Amino acid sequence: MALKGIDLDVEQGDFFALLGPNGAGKSTTIGIVTSLITKTSGEVKIFDIDLSTSPEKAKSYLGLVPQEFNFNGFEQVENILLTQAGYYGIPKKEAAPRVEQLLHQLDLWDKRFTPSRSLSGGMKRRLMIARALVHQPKLLILDEPTAGVDIELRRSMWQFLQEINAQGTTIILTTHYLEEAENLCRNIAIIDHGSIIENTDMKSLLNRLDKEVFILDLKQPLPDNIDLSGLAIHQLDSKTLELELKRDDIINNIFTRLTQQGIEISSMKNKANRLEELFLALVDRTSPNV
Amino acid sequence: MKAPEVHHWVAFTTLLTREIRRFIRIWPQTLLPPAITMTLYFIIFGNLIGSRIGEMSGFSYMEYIAPGIIMMAVINNAYANVASSFFSAKFQNHIEELLVAPIPNYLILVGYIAGGAARGLLVGLIVTLVSLFFTTLPIQHIFITLSMVVLSAIMFALGGFINAIYAKNFDEIAIIPTFILTPLTYLGGIFYSIDLLPDFWQQASLFNPILYMVNAFRYGMLGVSDIPVSIAFSIIIFCIIGLSSFALYLLNKGTGLRH
Q1: Around Cβ A288, how many Cβ atoms within 10 Å?
Q2: pLDDT tens for residues A67-90?
Q3: Do the bridges between strand A240-246 and strand A211-218 make them parallel or antiparallel, or are there none, so unpaired?
Q4: Which of A35, A191, A287, B156 is most buried (most C-beta within 10 Å)?
Q5: Under 8 Å between Cβ of A260 and A246
Q6: What is the pTM of this model?
Q7: Cα–Cα distance, B187 to B181 (Å, whole number)
Q8: Which of A54, A72, A94 to mutate to test binding with chain B, by most B CBs within 10 Å of its CB?
Q9: Is the ipTM of this complex over 0.90?
Q10: What are chain A's domains?
Q11: Which of B24, B27, B87, B94 to mutate to test the interface with A (most CBs of A within 10 A)?
């Protein structure tokens, strides 16, 4: 996907989400920043260092976790990390303790002598994170790091990334799991058809939601003579209601009215992730009619 | 914020070590076959057929072909190492590790070429040791012998690198060795002196760069050559400069590597 004049600033220390549908230009943007794609025009600066005029300096700040597995499948896990450190000019003696620490942190120590092709999918993802961190980059770019990873591992990776960010590493994340972006990132840009269509902080973006939809699970089946007039409530089945809550609505009033009619609510959840709703609305707005 | 200092020497030795570790790890594919093939050459061409051929340029046929066989092993292995290693790195995408890292392109080139030359020279040493079971190798000019074998390994490693840059599949790294390198090697005066050829083929042989390498290497060992050694050195240095400039140009342009 060709980019159309993207202008994007990520603050030092930020945890930044770059979102967009498939083929929107996320990977092209990351490819240009990491020099895997040659840009035809424009300027990329990493901590104020121009990537075109001082590529080595600029690249020394950078760690990349790509979308696809891209390590030598025949190399052992430990060697992959030591080699990566070497590429960044870190001698083996200095790199070895860092490698050991990362392998322990990412639960790969027992696999250090295993050829990388023999690792499970989740282990390979963790190996790519370890490899990207071995030279202690100031900027870590993660291109869908949790794709295909089970929920338990995904959550442990979130925690690990939050710790890394708290220690001062700037993180740029692309993901299709919008819950992930909402939980982790402070600022967000949404890209579609090669252009940035939104670039703001997460809180402001979420505040723009003028309504939220909740699913209410009832303790007892809904009586036939129930009066739901004036409420944006739809009955999904005998024990489930869908409630549309506008920004100015007061949820207590709605619950009081339901309680007065003898309706007991056993649980309540968002119908969809809040960011997901916004994302779909924004992307839909820029999509050509088909 | 001060950028971390990148030590290029460490990056270079890391790349070279990785390349050496690769061809040693797969030694049954890289080191053993040339030892067996060249042993067969010595037995069949040197011993069985050579004993009926008699002397060539004042040496037994076995002595005469030994430098050429060593050089053939060096050339083939230096070429094959870089072609297969660099193409595999592209194929598995782990070339991205190098492209993202703060390593200048010339260092990527030097690292791969050094790795290819290392395999070529190691195989050359193995074949030299094998040849000592069949013949003696009197080295007349040690500097010429060593410099020619090192320069030849570098030159063909560069050839393998350019081949790998352009290759889009494994077939394309086999085409050049099969259809160009092997014929040029066999027609490069390994098994005969070009004095034995008719005039036209003598002149045609002079366009084959391998002829110069084999003869200069043979001159270093035996003291005989079909061509002036100074011309051999000039040609090979010219080729190295040309090939390395072209390889660096391709790397800088990102041909076959960057989108």
Answers
A1: 5
A2: 889 999 999 999 999 999 999 999
A3: antiparallel
A4: B156
A5: no
A6: 0.86
A7: 10
A8: A72
A9: no
A10: 15-206 (3.40.50.300), 209-279 (3.30.70.1560)
A11: B94
